[in-house]
Design goal:
Layout (H helix, E strand, L loop, with lengths): L4 H13 L21 E9 L2 E9 L16 H5 L6
Antiparallel strand pairs: 1-2
Amino acid sequence: MSPKPAYDRLKHLIREKWWTTEEVEADGEGYAECRGFLGDYRVRVSDGGRDYEGTFSLSDAGGETDITVDLAPSVSMLQGPVPGG
């Protein structure tokens, strides 16, 4: 019941070759670029001391896929509670 060489090789491929871990810095316009495999992703963005997290999926759409991460607060967050409501 010990791992066989095929297990070790597959684990190496998944965790070290096919696992996408990128750290990129956005340019002056807020654009950053990276490459990844098809699948589900978790993205973490740091901006001005704040961290934001979200998820997205890359599917076999062919070609490049643009993902937009919007850090602007929503209108409802800015309004807060309604007085007397």
